[in-house]
Amino acid sequence: MKIKQGKKRNRGIGKEEETLRGQTRAESFYRFSRLAIFPVITFALLALLPALAGAQTRRLVVLKVDGLPHDTVERFVRERNPRTGKSQLPWMEHVFYQRGSRLENFYTRGISLSGPSWAILDTGQHAQIKGNVEFDRLTMHTYDYLNFIPYWIAYAGQVRVDMPGTEIMDEMGTPLLMDAYPYDERYMSFQLYQRGARWTTLERGLKNRFTTRSPRELVDEWTMGIDGRNIVLDQLERELLEKLNNPRIRYLDYYTT
Description:
It contains nine helices and five strands; from the N terminus they run αβαααββααβαααβ. It is mostly helical and 257 residues long. The protein has a three-stranded parallel sheet, with helices on one face. The longest helix has 55 residues, at 2-56.
C-alpha cells in the first residue's frame, strides 16, 4: 500500500511537473509572440502616421491682433459656443482664466516689443530678435523691424523681397509657421514677418475705396483726411473672405493692430 501510495504520489508529481512545463512553454510562446508582433505593430503605426497627420488638419486660419483690448478678450472668453458648450476662446480660458493669472489693466513706461513678441508667436522658438529696432555695432547697420515704408520702397526697387525680421529668421534657419505650407496653398496678410508683397492688394483697395462711396463721402473724407490704413485693412479682410472659399488654400492669416 505504501508503495502504491508512493507510486501514486510520484505520478501526481509527474503530472504537476508536466503541467508546469506546459505552462512555462505557453508563457514563453506568449512572450515571444508579443515580442514578435511589437515591431510589426510599431512599423504599421509609423507607416500610418503621415496619413493620420494629414487627415487631422486640413486648413489653418490664424487671426493676429496686435494690442487687442482686454474687454474684447473678456467678452469672447465668457461667450459660450452653442455647439460645444465651451468658451469661444477655450485655450485662453483654460490657460489664463482657470490655471493662470491676468491683469485687467496696467500701466507701463517701457517700449513696445511687438517685434520680439511676434517672432516668438510666428516661429514657436525663443526670441532671437530682442527689440523693435536693433543696431549692429560691427556693420554700423540699423535693423528696423516695424517700419513698412522702407520695405515697400526696397521691394519696388527689387532690392528686398521679405521684411527685415523675416530675413533675419532665414539667416538663422528658423522657419515661420506659414513655411509649413507651399506658396500656392497659403494666403498671408501684411505683417511684421512678411514674405513678399502684393501690389494687387493696394490697387484693389484703392479701387474699392473710390467706387463704393458717393461723391459727397469722398469730398468729406478728402476734407477730413484719407484714412489710408483702413484702405489696406478692409481690402485684406475682403481677400481673406474670398480665399476662404478656395479649398486649395490651406493656410490663411489676417494681421491687424
